[in-house]
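Progress against Task 2.4 (sequence-to-structure conversion) is shown through the following example record, which the project officer requested during the mid-term review.
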Amino acid sequence: MSRLDLDWNILLTSRKDEERALLKEVEELGIFMRTDFKGILVGKVKDVEKFMEEISRRMPYSLSWVIPIEEAFPVSVERLMETLRSRIERYADRINPGETFCIKFERRGFRGRISSMDVEMELGAHLSALLNRSGKNPKVELRDPDKLISIQMIGNLCGIGIIAKATRAKYSFVRAK
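Structure tokens generated for the chain above:
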């Protein structure tokens, strides 16, 4: 990756072997590029909500799913947990008392060095403790939470976005594993 390394706000996945077709289908909606990982594109759009409305209208055949990203940053394996703990604390204010949440972490690269489940469990416990200290008494809900914090790691780059249940209900193509 090059010019979008730290300035992307959309992650797209394509159907099998459809990266080029997807790039063509979304080229006029923003700046998109392939990554070093098969089926994964990142992009920069001016308005994420308008982009998702347009995708909903067009429903590109080659698209599997979309993840809105609010911040993108470099990360190292050695400091991964420290960096992510600090970053997810910024989202605590957006989880209201009584709401459910979960953290989904998907890594591309570093097979065998990073366990997605371990990252999710540690970050979930960290955020839950932080929310408990602020009196919000959160509940973790893995299937259909009110707020889903999606962390997407693509090699040494990471993107985080918080996706509300209403957004996932409105756009069937917005999801995180």
